UniProtKB/TrEMBL annotation:
Species classification: Bacteria, Candidatus Bipolaricaulota, Candidatus Bipolaricaulia, Candidatus Bipolaricaulales, Candidatus Bipolaricaulaceae
Entry's localization field: Cytoplasm
Name of one Pfam family that matches: Elong-fact-P_C
Superkingdom field: Bacteria
Family affiliation: Belongs to the elongation factor P family.
GO CC annotations, alphabetized: cytosol
Species name: Candidatus Bipolaricaulis anaerobius
Keywords from the UniProt entry: Cytoplasm, Elongation factor, Protein biosynthesis
Annotated ranges, domain Translation elongation factor P/YeiP central: 68-122
Name of the featured protein: Elongation factor P
Classification via NCBIfam families: efp (TIGR00038), PRK00529.1 (NF001810)
Length: 187
């Protein structure tokens, strides 16, 4: 079933010309004369390529309904990252390019959300928050307070985030995977 351009939103998955696209940005435009249209940036879920497209109501747009499954990250080997469906125990391998945006949050045993279209995995989404151990954090400078200032800290996955000055090596912190920002100290 087709949709109108007024229904387009960020994060929506569309089928165009037989391919799956995720809308990453969009802008509704209504000119004084003539019809409205949408300028959209969309990511091809098969290739990862981002395209810019002008969409009109006359375009044949269709919403793709994606099935979600809980996947557990198992391991990385030879540039491939292996995830397992927690219900069927089926394993899926992803290339390094696909996991690059969230590579710093890959911890063995962590649950991710897999999005499937017609039994084919098209995307993996990390959890909103991940707890990671600080492996390297320079000491705070004398006179700094717990409420001001930040310093870079390296986490167990190699990810570097800005943390408050009171965070030390060996502590576990919670990181927001959507922004890459420090949230709180866990232990």
């Amino acid at each position: 079933m087709g949709i109108s351009i007024g229904e387009i939103s960020r994060g929506m998955t569309l089928i165009m010309d037989g391919e799956l696209y995720e809308v990453t940005e969009f802008e509704h435009v209504k000119l004084g004369r003539g019809g409205a249209f949408v300028r959209a940036k969309m990511k091809d879920l098969r290739t990862g390529r981002v395209i810019s497209k002008t969409l009109k109501d006359s375009d044949n747009l269709e919403t793709a309904y994606l099935e979600t499954r809980i996947l557990q990250y198992l391991y990385q080997s030879g540039g491939k990252y292996t995830f397992m469906d927690k219900e069927t125990f089926e394993q899926y391998e992803l290339d390094a390019e696909v996991v690059e945006p969230f590579k710093g949050y890959l911890v063995e045993g962590l649950d991710f959300t897999g999005l499937f279209y017609q039994d084919r995995m098209v995307k993996v989404v990390p959890p909103n928050f991940v707890d990671l151990r600080v492996t390297e954090a320079p000491p705070g400078i004398k006179g700094d307070t717990a409420t001001g200032g930040e310093k870079p800290a390296t986490l167990q996955t190699g990810l570097v985030v800005k943390v408050p000055l009171f965070v030390t090596t060996g502590e576990v912190i919670r990181v927001d995977t959507r922004t890459g920002a420090y949230v709180e100290r866990v232990s």
